Amino acid sequence: MNLTRRTLLAGSAALAAPAIARAQSPSGPIRIGEINSYTAIPAFTLPYRNGWQLAVEQVNAAGGVLGRKLEVISRDDAGRPQDAVRIAGELLNEEKVDLLAGGFLSNVGLAISDFALQNKRLYVAGEPLTDALVWQKGHRYCFRLRPSTYMQAAILVEDAAKLPAKRWVSVAPNYEYGTSTVKWFRQLLAQRRPDVSFVAEQLPALGKIDAGATVAALEAAKPEAILNVTFGPDLTNFVRQGNTRGLFEGRSVVSVLTGEPEYLDALGDETPPGWLVTGYPVDSVRDAANTAFIAAYKAKFNEMPKMGSVVGHALISSIVAGIIKAHGTDTETLCDALPGTAFDTPFGRVVWRAIDHQSTLGTYVGRTALKDGRGTMVDWRYVNGATVLPGDDVVRKLRPA
Amino acid sequence: MDAILIQLLTGLAGASSLFLVAAGLTVIFGVTRVVNFAHGSLFMLGAYIAWSILVHLPRAPGWHAAGVLLAALATAGIGALLEIGLLRRLYRAPELLQLLATFGVLLVVQDLTLLLWGPNDLALPRPSWLRGSVAIAGARFPAYDLLLIGIGPLVLAALWLLFSRTRWGTLVRAATQDREMVAALGVDQSVLFTTVFALGAGLAGLGGALALPDGSANLQMDLTVITDAFVVVVVGGMGSLPGAYLAALLIALLQAFGVMLLPNATLVLMFVVMAAVLAVRPHGLLGRALAPARGEAQATALIRPASPALRGLGLAVLALAMAAPFLAGPFVLSVLTEALVAMLFAASLHAMMGPGGMASFGHAAWFGIGAYAAALAAKGLLMPMPVGLLLGPLLAGAAALAFGWFVVRLSGVYLAMLTLAFAQIVWAVAFQSDLTGGDNGVLGIWPDAWAQDPRVFYALALVLCAGGTLGLRRVLFSPFGYALRAARDAPARAEAIGLWPARLRLAAFALAGAAAGLAGAVGTYSKGSVFPTTISISRSVDALLMVLLGGVQTMSGPIVGALAYTGLYDVLIRATDLWRLCLGLIIIALVLAFPQGIAGAAARDRTA
Predict the structure, then answer these.
(1) Which residues pair with A371 in a beta bridge?
(2) Residues B105 and B227 both lie in one domain
């Protein structure tokens, strides 16, 4: 339970002591209304649920928040944004939650965010990656934890720009996450490497990749490097066809999210070595914060955490830190308090940015490798999210609100 | 040139995979006329069962083949149980009711698979012989894909022999053409149907097991596969195995070359092909017009205006609905608003499906066009809400009128699938166009200030949705409604007395589209945002479920069905993680208890 105490103390920063001293009104639990696509995308959301459950247990074991117990009322949105809006209304009006949190799909996140704006209630988004959530459609009541599409691309471009390759191709699922990642990657890479060109692009429908045809079409373009944005079942199909057909041999591959255990585990002994990926090297991180989190997680669930688990855990820490700083759960006070608030996560200390309400949670970047017939990440380093976000003037232009 | 040869071979391998998925569905439909929505679930079970078997077997080719066959047999067994336990009881029920039952099965299987195998994708480690490749045209082509290229035609040939050279096959073909006659000759149909269903299920399982080395067993497979299977079956001609293979070949080759020429078209290619084929050949490539099965074409009872008792009940419910703003809180009102939208949506589908005789698998298209019209009027043109609420039904009705011209010439499942193709094309446009915001949708479409109070908006929704539903009802009891039913039940006689069936159907189609568009516009303002998911297949299926649950051949069916379905869904999703299992079981129980739908059963009890 070391982690809990540290999270609480650190998260509360300078204000911690007076805040705890003043918390004299144990007026029932603090209630977080949480919404996610538990039945639609269980491979990612169930480890995520484990993550926040662990965090809630740790917070309450350490005495709760401001002397009050922390409660999460969790709902399934079935992957449908319209259901998420109805559920958000139920959580606010019936369950009387103090704030909304959660979301995995970008459209679900945007729907809840818009509902939160209309009703002037706080929404802390965990997983949705779309840039629109904090930029084009960003507003006072919405905060987002995970590194966005832009950040994922920017993190990889650092190293991708050092590759000798000039002829690039891309393969991405045919929806916003895929197209937007490719767009940012190309744009940012072109800034550093004007000599680079993209000679072919594949956009398979999500979950329906025709892997053989896609691999053959990429091969026909004779690329020197490949940007991959597919994930989940599509990625497995793509890698298997690519391995058999030799697509990856002698070529650099840059791949978004592939180092996350959610997706890497399924590749098994077919993990192509040497891919430049973002992810979570859960089997080789050794720092104190990660180790404590992994140990607590394993003790409770008897399995290794995944990236979703980290997000779920950090989501609770980020909210708790804000509540402590605001000395309560009043929405307006919370929305004033959150910007600039720091909190501890398994990946280290993170801050809610004031300018766009994006957290500075980063991710790991490294190379894939095979170890004992399983995929893993090597030569990795942690990239702080704050270091890859664009300058303030750019962000102000991107975020009208 | 070399690249073309490789894509050609890749397309052939893809065709085999598609054919294996579709063959079982077409076999089942050809004989039992069951539109089996759970076919994708059987495919998924085949993959999962194969995974469980194969990880325990030695990895030599012989053992692998044995494991695959075992998985197919196990899936066939599950199929037989499904037929005996559920579908057998429904052959005499109205058409498409089996669709509702198999949708229940789909929900149950989703949760059971998650419970049994867990949430992670299960990828079978490939031994070296499955990873191997053959050098063709200077490129490495997967040996397993070559194997697949052979397996497709092999299965086709085996099925052809089975159906044309065995006594069982002869009987099955006889039953396909004339069930009643086969029964009259003393053939036990139930055994025939069970074995056919088991064969179809086994083929689905075989497809799933054979797909395993190329990827993983995962929980999205069922829904991914089911639309592909339906498209192939319909393009080929329902019940025709050579047709299914031809369709699989056409689609897979277009897809293989399509990704090279038009990488952006992956979302719609298949549906554009289907729409084009159906526009030219209304019964698919090799399909034939089905003789109406004598057993099921029972003349439907004349629909009479509601009895005084029913009318009283309706008025009481309406009065209660009007009192709701004074009794309920904002959340309950939002749920009731949603139920009202669902009611008008279901009633609009019912108008074309019941009295019009045109079932639709793509009704969400009109709902979505109405929703986007309202959203773009508000955000793009900065118009006040009433303009959006007016534009919704107008544009949806106009679009339905234009699409309808192609649709009304078809009938049955072909018609339903053509509407699905249109819905998918509309979906893809909304998904990929900048105007509609892609899959990030259009946000911030909230009611004008005067209607922002949930009570006021609810009252508005009540006026529009209940008014729309009652208006549809009025139309269906007008001479137009009677003429429409005449055109459905006896087109030749209707024409003889001077009616014009095609025009009547087109009018009904446009009217249904406009009413769905109104529902979409109201729904948009109640949710504040609209996304392409409003046009998704699952939304179309929702409408179908509501109508079938309530009862197709009653006027109050869609109302009862919409309220029951949205109510159940809302309660279950909040109550339990296993809501799909519960909802599926309840749907199955309702189908077995009320094959005529809930309202249909009530009407029957009253007349009995």
Answers:
(1) A374
(2) yes
Measure the CA–CA gap between B100 and B549, rounded to whole angstroms. 8
pLDDT for B371-386, tens place per residue? 999 999 998 888 999 9
**CA distance to partner chain B, nearest, from residue A228 (Å):** 15
The answer to whether B503 and B491 are in contact (CB under 8 A) is no
* CATH number, domain containing residue B109: 1.10.3470
Using DSSP bridges, classify how beta strands B133-136 and A374-383 pair: parallel, antiparallel or unpaired: unpaired
Cα-based distances in Å from B280 to B250, B272, B277, B416: 15, 13, 5, 16
Chain A residues lying within 8 Å of B145, measured CB to CB: 212
Q: Which residue of B has its CA nearest to A176?
A: B439
Q: Which domain holds residue B375?
A: 328-607
> Quick check: A75 and B573 CB within 8 A?
yes
> Does A261 touch chain B if contact means CB atoms closer than 8 Å?
no
8 A C-beta contact, residue A268 and residue A374: yes
Please give the pLDDT value at position A25.
45
Our count of domains for chain A comes to 2
Query: Does some domain include residue B184?
Result: yes
Is there a domain that residue A399 lies in? no
Distance from CA of B130 to the nearest CA of A (A): 9
- Number of domains observed in the structure of chain B: 2
Q: Please judge whether B574 and A90 are an interchain contact, meaning their C-beta atoms are less than 8 angstroms apart.
A: yes
Say if A336 falls within a structural domain.
yes
pLDDT digits (tens, 9 = 90+) for A266-286: 999 999 999 999 999 999 999
Residue A214 touches partner B, C-beta closer than 8 Å: yes
Asked if B335's CB is within 8 angstroms of A243's CB, the reply is: no
Cβ(A343)–Cβ(A318) under 8 Å? yes
How far, CA to CA in Å, does B533 sit from each of A107, A136, A374, B298, B560?
9, 21, 37, 37, 25
ipTM: 0.91
